[in-house]
Design goal:
Elements (H helix, E strand, L loop, with lengths): L7 H28 L3 H5 L13 H7 L6 H32 L3 H15 L6 H10 L6 H25 L4 H8 L4 H12 L1 H17 L2 H7 L7 H6 L9 H31 L4
Helix pairs in contact: 1-13, 3-13, 4-5, 4-7, 4-10, 5-7, 7-10, 8-9, 10-13
Length: 278
Amino acid sequence: MSRLRYRPRTFGREILMLVAAAIWWVPFYLIVALSFQDSDEVSHRSLKLPLTHPEFSNFSNAWSDPVNGMEHGMLSSLVITVGSVAVIVVLASLGAYAIARHSGRLNNGLYVTFVLGIVMPYQLGLIPAFVALREMGLVGTYLGMIVLYTGLEMPTAIFLYAGFIRALPTEYEEAALVDGATPLRIFWRVVFPLLAPVTATVAVVTALFVWNDFFTQLVFLGGTDNQTLPVAIYGFVGEFTTQWNYVFAGVVLSVLPVLAFFVLTQRKLVKGFAGGIK
């Protein structure tokens, strides 16, 4: 029972966590406060939340702006993010299963290659990737971005899936093999349902990267009709004037879908990083 007592050390940890949470909330508060201010208040660097006359029109104007409207940007971001996550989950889980369940020089070499892909900065390969996608007519298209992000995020997904699969027991797979199931059927019916925690981790990590990425989307989608949310928000930044109230309102709107997705998958996300199953 003594272990359950509320000790001064426990109180100190709680105070430390509250301070860390307060520090984390500071930039979030600034974004929300500035998104409800008009252009004059933003230009005077007012950091208070306008409670009497909040400018809700910032969100509607940023959403339906005729030049940099976020409505189509939201659709583009959703299509590219959902498509990239779906393709990566399918291909990475299959590839990691083959690597984790079959030992040999080839599989070990492939695993090391994918791990090196995590370390290498992807910006080094943007020019060759741009040239390749341009030759295939995929620059500025949803399909081209999905293919590009699949290649960029595959090393991380393979690394997470392979580590999780190696911790899974093989008894269920052996029993299904004795019953006459094919390896592909064993994977989809037996193994893949057990990968729900790490699948949530891969989905969240991939979705956050694709949704928030700006540089790659600016290079491959800038000036096209398929520009995503980060590129659309950047359109409010001009050479001589910047509509900061629209910028912050756009940031708030872009955060909401990712925040909702994270809240729905946070339990499996933590379990996936822990690397265990029940």
